[in-house]
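Tokens for HECT-type E3 ubiquitin transferase. Go.
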Amino acid sequence: MLPFSGSSSTAVRVRRDHIFEDSFRALSQDEVGSKPLKGRIQVTFVNEHGMEEAGIDGGGLLKEWMDAICKEVFDPTYGYFVTTGTSGDSTANQVTPSYASGVLSSEHLDGFRFAGRILGKALYEGILVEPRLASPFINKLLGRYNHVDDLKFLDQGLHKGLMSMKRMALSSREADREAVADLGLNFQTNIEAFGAHHDVSLMPDGENVAVTAQNALQYIHLLAHFKLNVLTKAQSEAVLKGFRELIPVCWLRLFNAPEVQLLIGGDGYHPIDLNDLKAHCAYSGGYHPSQPYIKAFWQCVDEFTPREHADFLRFITSCSRQPLLGFSSLNPKICIQKVPHEPYGKLPSAATCMNLLKLPQYDDKETLRSKLLYAISSNAGFDLT
């Protein structure tokens, strides 16, 4: 990729408990636009007591800042995005813009535009972010139209129901075709925002047009089009506008939605390659790979389940998925640093801005394993120093 023009830097001072709000205010003024995000950003974090945290931003704080912004704005509780699917299906916990975002804030479209800029900045800088974007949403980032088959990535239950209706409408059995009308549907759909429901017509006078076997295919296409391309059009276009301010669309034309997700969030489709991770891991503070203790450490990691491997990687790097080009492309490389275990029983901790695992030397392998598992499963050892 070509570098951004200019070498200017912008200082950003943010409170950890208001990170998206403070970043948005600092970088989204009309007269500033996306220019700061195209240059170097120097981040200063402010703790809950209003004190600036010590630290020099050599790149690690940028990663921590972007990861924290993404975690906040893409969290469904923030109100901008919702998760797709239901627990247990393949689309569960992927994010897409929320239709109801405007209820929470009159500035919601500006917020979506800024979220698009942050995604673009992360992609350009090669910083992996944890949220998994729904395929129809990525298609919008690519400027592509969503079709009926894309609905299964947004709402599997609705897609399954519409495909069942299609089979009924095209059936050679008269009873099946008549069953379409028996569903009692018309050309409108109901949408909900924070408990308030209202109906939307899919065509002029749609509330008075019954769905039958003869017009079922039209109904299916109109409903899918509304859900995929119309319902959150304003939010998606705002994200797209911000994203394209940093990532020209021509850079992504060769990729499909799953490939773009790999670029944004890393490889979540294959087991984490532990041999590759070990081969590109650094050590400091007195540790080195030939030590019995480090060998015991890797034996513990080898014995983890795939879910625990993902938790382990997220604990150190803030992202549970491995880099698309392998761990050799991770910058900075994962490093295991020896630290004192006083006070007794101190847990492993991590500085995700530097991909650094701070590992005390425990007395035996079982203690090492239990402390490590507790830390990665609860984030109890999360550390920013």
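The chain has 15 helices and twelve strands.
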